[in-house]
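Researcher: Let's do a round of design. I'm pasting the structure tokens now; please hold your answer until I've finished.
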């Protein structure tokens, strides 16, 4: 027990120092009025709370999905190098980014970290590895890197996934033999020049022009105007030696559309090559460890062999050859490398959400405000129903999206040519949905932390700026949602025209009759997974049929399909969201079904219900298009946020003065999640604490305004145990280690 009290004393001293002064300045001597000894009879929840009610290691395996040992190995590598700013607190170590660097220092540090990880074999097999196992390892390690330093992850993504992926997908044997091994070894540094100043989402409209000189057997790349300059090219400003150039290919005066070429932009000494001009895009609101640049090509000549020719080629005498005659299909083939990038962006967005929630939850487990009666202790923030309602639905969504991300990765690594359309549509829908969720979550967590949310080292605000661009790069989210709706439209029209059953894109539910939703939704059937799935499928089915009808009406008036889609943008976005929400729910149901009966399955069921009911409550389309009556919508709201005393509620709570009025929401939903995010008193505190522990090695969590005051129990034992267990699983998801943060709250 002596060691436990020593740890309590140590945490209190750390917390005292953290509260007294900003980290950059040396701590002044403590005045007599501020003691560093343990006070208020505080002891960390992990020393006093009961055991978890389910297997947190199993929950971590569900959340991470794969390669847990590889993840832990990489975290350990980062802790062993000063490049990752490891800091010791007692017997524990955590890593945290240095937020006091200039843009130039950040860029230099990013390259040093790349070289450190390269020397230790982190990138082994990232390009040359074959099969699902190699791809899953790459995905897992990328997720770990993104948690620590998003700039580092993006820089690696540009080199391996965009530059390297383009060579893999678009190149042939001659390109693979020449470029892949040297790319994996970082013998060259690649970038990906697709976006231009004048064209981003509309890749077909890019203005860079490449012609062929049959005399010298060379391609000539030209930037014909200022709007054709390549812009926002990651790695171009300082480090890249080569780039994939996307350009219009003009052969004998005929434009053959967009093609990809390899061009060298710097020599081995870092000097810019002749006829190439490069400028820096400058400081950004985030990701300043990535050197984004601008590139102009002044009739740059490259060998004929530098055309990536798996889709199309040019013979030595200048004849254009392609195995794909349809220009639309040929263009679609050139977008293949973006799929992997969208997958990594979507999954990393979920991990960012976990960081924000862990931070906000831990803070609300220690910060108190106001009391409910005279001479009573102040109440923990997370004991307030309003605070719970801010964070718990986001936590449930984050669990749901974790499972969705794992599903997306699994179908990608097991892909076949027949699955390409499904992977494209699902990755587009998930990329938009998960990144939008991340930005909303980070903003809510920032606000939930009050002034402490502004502190850079607490990472919530830092992540907001670092991840903000995720809604734009590798596909603007709104454009992606319209692409999803167009793909569903095409699938519907083809099935009806050919009089075939729906197969793929999760549209099989449309082969039968429309599901019948109970006229009166009660607490029990609202929590039923099959009824939840029916409601989500009905919404998608009806929106798709409505979208088809609107497009058809415009076409009958002589309008183009493109015009009709633009004029029905709101309906298209509603359909895209409906597809994504349904897919996420179905992946959650599949994950839940694989778990044996027991406490963990019960927690997953609660989380799944909270996710589904939150979507029902938040999305106005359920009311707008009549999928829910006003009465049923009111029932959903009651399940999510109003007090009640149903049987399930009574099982989970012995309602006390504070919590009885607050948590139908928890009852019905994420106990696992809720437990993670919700923190009434001692036992709930542990859950939130455990949730945040998983993030500790990567960040400073908000400093507590004061050690928790002793108070009477508010949350019943069963609920607190659940909350404790779920948070612990979230903690394990991030690192698998026990770390301690600068606030001393572990």
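Researcher: That's everything. Go ahead.
Model: Designed sequence:
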């Amino acid at each position: 027990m002596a060691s436990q009290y020593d740890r309590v004393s140590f945490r209190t001293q750390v917390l005292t120092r953290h509260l007294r002064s900003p980290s950059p300045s040396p701590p002044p001597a403590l005045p007599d009025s501020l003691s560093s000894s343990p006070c208020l009879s505080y002891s960390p929840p992990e020393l006093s709370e009961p055991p978890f009610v389910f297997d947190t290691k199993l929950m971590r395996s569900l959340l991470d999905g794969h390669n847990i040992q590889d993840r832990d190995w990489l975290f350990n590598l980062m802790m062993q190098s000063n490049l990752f700013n490891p800091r010791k607190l007692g017997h524990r170590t955590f890593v945290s980014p240095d937020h006091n660097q200039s843009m130039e220092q950040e860029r230099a540090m990013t390259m040093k970290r790349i070289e450190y990880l390269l020397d230790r074999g982190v990138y082994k097999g990232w390009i040359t590895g074959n099969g699902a196992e190699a791809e899953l390892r790459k995905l897992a390690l990328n997720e770990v890197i993104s948690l620590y330093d998003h700039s580092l992850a993006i820089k690696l993504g540009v080199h391996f996934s965009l530059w390297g992926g383009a060579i893999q997908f678009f190149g042939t044997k001659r390109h693979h033999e020449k470029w892949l091994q040297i790319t994996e070894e970082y013998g060259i540094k690649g970038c990906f020049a697709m976006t231009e100043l004048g064209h981003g989402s509309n890749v077909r409209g890019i203005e860079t022009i490449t012609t062929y000189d049959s005399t010298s057997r060379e391609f000539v790349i030209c930037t014909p105007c200022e709007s054709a300059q390549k812009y926002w090219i990651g790695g171009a400003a300082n480090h890249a030696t080569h780039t994939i150039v996307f350009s219009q290919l003009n052969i004998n005066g005929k434009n053959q559309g967009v093609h990809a070429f390899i061009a060298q932009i710097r020599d081995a000494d870092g000097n810019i090559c002749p006829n190439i001009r490069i400028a820096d895009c400058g400081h950004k609101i985030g990701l300043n460890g990535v050197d984004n640049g601008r590139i102009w090509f002044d009739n740059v000549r490259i060998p004929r062999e530098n055309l990536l020719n798996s889709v199309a080629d040019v013979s030595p005498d200048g004849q254009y050859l392609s195995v794909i005659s349809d220009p639309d299909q040929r263009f679609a083939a050139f977008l293949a490398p973006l799929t992997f990038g969208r997958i990594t962006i979507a999954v990393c967005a979920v991990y960012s959400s976990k960081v924000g929630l862990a931070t906000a939850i831990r803070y609300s487990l220690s910060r108190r405000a106001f009391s409910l009666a005279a001479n009573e202790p102040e109440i923990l923030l997370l004991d307030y129903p309003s605070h719970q309602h801010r964070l718990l639905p986001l936590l449930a969504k984050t669990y749901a999206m974790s499972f969705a991300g794992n599903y997306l990765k699994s179908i990608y690594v097991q892909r076949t040519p027949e699955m390409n359309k499904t992977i494209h549509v699902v990755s587009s829908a998930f990329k938009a949905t998960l990144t939008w969720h991340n930005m909303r979550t980070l903003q809510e967590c920032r606000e939930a932390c009050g002034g402490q949310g502004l502190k850079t080292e607490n990472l919530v605000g830092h992540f907001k700026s670092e991840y903000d661009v995720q809604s734009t790069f590798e596909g603007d989210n709104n454009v992606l949602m319209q692409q999803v709706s167009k793909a569903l439209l095409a699938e519907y029209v083809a099935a009806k025209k050919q009089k075939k059953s729906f197969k793929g894109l999760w549209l099989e539910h449309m082969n039968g009759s429309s599901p019948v939703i109970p006229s009166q939704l009660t607490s029990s059937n609202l929590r039923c997974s099959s009824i939840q799935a029916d409601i989500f499928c009905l919404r998608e089915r009806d929106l798709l049929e409505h979208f088809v009808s609107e497009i058809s009406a415009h076409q009958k008036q002589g309008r183009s399909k493109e015009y009709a889609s633009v004029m029905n943008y709101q309906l298209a976005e509603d359909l895209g969201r409906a597809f994504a929400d349904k897919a996420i729910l179905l992946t959650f149901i599949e994950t839940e079904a694989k778990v044996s009966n027991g406490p963990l399955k019960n927690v997953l069921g609660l989380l799944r219900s909270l996710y589904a009911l939150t979507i029902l409550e938040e999305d106005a389309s359920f009311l707008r298009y009549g999928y829910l009556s006003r009465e049923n919508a009111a029932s959903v709201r009651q399940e999510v946020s109003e007090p009640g005393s149903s049987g399930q509620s009574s099982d989970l709570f012995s309602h006390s003065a504070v919590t009885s009025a607050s948590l139908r929401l928890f009852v019905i939903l994420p106990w696992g999640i809720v437990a993670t995010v919700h923190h009434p008193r001692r036992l709930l505190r542990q859950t939130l604490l455990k949730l945040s522990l998983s993030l500790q090695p990567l960040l400073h969590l908000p400093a507590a305004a004061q050690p928790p005051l002793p108070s009477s129990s508010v949350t019943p034992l069963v609920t607190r145990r659940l909350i404790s267990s779920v948070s612990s699983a979230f903690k394990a998801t991030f690192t698998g280690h026990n770390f301690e943060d600068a606030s001393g709250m572990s």
